[in-house]
Amino acid sequence: MPAKSIIAARWVIPVQPRQHVLENHALVIENVRIVDILPTSDARSKYPDTPVTERPTHAVLPGFINAHTHAAMSLFRGMADDVPLMDWLNNHIWPAEAKWVGQEFMRDGVELAIAEMLLSGTTCFNDMYFFPNVVANIAQEMGIRAHVGLIVMDFPTAWADSPEAYFDKGLHVHDEVRSLSRVGTTLAPHAPYTVSDAPLEQVRTYADELNIPIHMHVHETSTEVSDSVAQSGVRPLARLNQLGLLNPRMMAVHMTQLTDEEITLCAEQGISVVHCPESNLKLASGQCRVADLLAAGANVCLGTDSAASNNDLDMLGEMQTAALMAKVTAQNAQALPAWQALEMATINGAIALNCQDDIGSLEIGKSADLIAIDLDHISTQPVYDPVSQIVYSASREQITDVWVEGIQRVKYKQLVNVDVDDLLQTARRWGERLTTS
Amino acid sequence: MPAKSIIAARWVIPVQPRQHVLENHALVIENVRIVDILPTSDARSKYPDTPVTERPTHAVLPGFINAHTHAAMSLFRGMADDVPLMDWLNNHIWPAEAKWVGQEFMRDGVELAIAEMLLSGTTCFNDMYFFPNVVANIAQEMGIRAHVGLIVMDFPTAWADSPEAYFDKGLHVHDEVRSLSRVGTTLAPHAPYTVSDAPLEQVRTYADELNIPIHMHVHETSTEVSDSVAQSGVRPLARLNQLGLLNPRMMAVHMTQLTDEEITLCAEQGISVVHCPESNLKLASGQCRVADLLAAGANVCLGTDSAASNNDLDMLGEMQTAALMAKVTAQNAQALPAWQALEMATINGAIALNCQDDIGSLEIGKSADLIAIDLDHISTQPVYDPVSQIVYSASREQITDVWVEGIQRVKYKQLVNVDVDDLLQTARRWGERLTTS
Question: What pTM was computed for the model?
Fold first, then answer.
């Protein structure tokens, strides 16, 4: 990779400043960073010897930040559809995980997921699963940015057998991954119904000490909320508030069950909400009040959840679903306009992960994490507004190029340095194993 | 095209019988029809001299039937987003139509739309727009099946200036298109709020005489319903019932506002409901009670509406949205399982159009309207259930081949005999014209 390079596009969509579209503009990348953004004609004269990558019918924008997934579960894609959450977890997913999850499953599942994410324009993902060390190393190898969850649960799994063990292993992973340039960590207590108060208090302490986010499923279903009230007299969000966990570190995933007061609380406490519309729809969990949260000033970002309850890791599709759903949830066709949906998929995820100084928008000084989308397609012409086109019409196959830290990871729709045939063969083999088991 | 040919696939999904998946099966096509369906190994020995098209990692299934669109409006794609229905119609769409719609607009818009539909697996579409004769001729030329609406409205438009004129021109078009093998007609009164009682009675009469469906927007928004009650004391559906229009010819589009009694009425009267989830979401119109309608025994099919309120004509994406939405609308994760969503996009559309003897499923004697989808992709492996994969994970770029009446219209993702660059250039020119106006 040359030390300096130019990417020239029909449209540059920086995301910040908001609602800007820069026509016929170029980004100048030096080492890992964006060092200039200017009209392409000016770039050619200002940097005459710098090689130019021409993307003349494309929009270039920040890479997507998938703020919630369980990457390795791609091997469970389509294995158990059309069942509600607790049935799905108790009778399908948890038994399959108990049987299959180990180093090999993790490696194969994570590689498949990262390949899919890179090809569909995701440059950073926030994972919650067993063996976060495995996830971290594969992410670094494959060139995608990742935040891995140091998971905590009350009960034993393949990863650890007690809260103490979860913390011990988690802190170990946190130390191990310091040397990986594109990897961060989060404290990841699974959910209010799987983690009791004492470990949650420790989570708060460690998150503060290590200065990392907290990544947790919260208020995913009405049953979760009513069970909590029955058991402890309070809703899970109130319980988390009492434990001091509602602060800007908190990334609360799903949040489909929110009262007006809780929405105000989210905004006041500065938590981030991670919206996963396709998962919420597929599991009939509910509809997150995204427009209301944004209007109250809360940070709302976007995630796909796992490929077993979606059933893909496609952030472009997720963005479209979010933009469409929010309008009917709010009963207002002006809710969550395209530019705001794009913010959710980019800068808001960066804010949630406390990386907004480094990624999430195309600005001088930020890391060159970006993608090109070709709008010269039958389904995305004519173009009146490229942001609208991206959110409401484009499909993942139109994503042609992906750069992470200025290194091209997808070129002309092909993964660089990844043997896709090999990945597909491995996936097929897992499919046969899990089918015959 | 050879008189007889074989298509051999990894999976054949016939749709009827329902919930069947035939692994490693072949279809034998002779002239326009399916003449045999059998295991591929048997096909090779039974028809040794017949050329075989191998699709070894693909599912082959009936082509999608887009049961409601306004094809030419593709030229308005993305022109006016994030506004509610009546504002969108009154302040954006109707003025633009008044300014631009004519023969040139129709030809260019319809060609663009049909190209997009063919590439994304639609083999039959049901249109409602001005100049249905233009739509019919282009559809026949481009090799897609179409039903064109003989539109009726109270007020003048580019097509006609009074109900009498609408009927006169419509009947003329009906006669003209008899000679077009792949084209049918419908009577298409726009909506309850744009067509008064007298023309609606004539619609009923003509539909019976000509033996064609009735294609109408019904109960699209709560405002439509409350306005009707304010003006006439009855909801639009009740008014249509009084006029004798609720019968098996009726294709009622949208139907987002339905009581339990109205759902029972739909099933009892044998009407078809055309569900357009992405349009309903985008315009914040409401949520059609799809699962309740199906449970009551009503026929529910699927449409994209126009590219100006979607914003694409992608039936695969529409099917996914329908399958996801229905679960949260019904608050039941088992609602609208994948196989049923596929029926909505295929056989149910054929039933609605009264073509179920000819299209909508892969059966011996039916027309060879079919598509191949390649599931050997990073985002659709491993495969446990190909129908689930198609509905919940696949994306339109995985549609590799499309046949209508046994003639291949898309081969290896390329339109046959269509100059796509020319279409794109024409679309771009229209984009510039409409932008500077």
Answer: 0.96
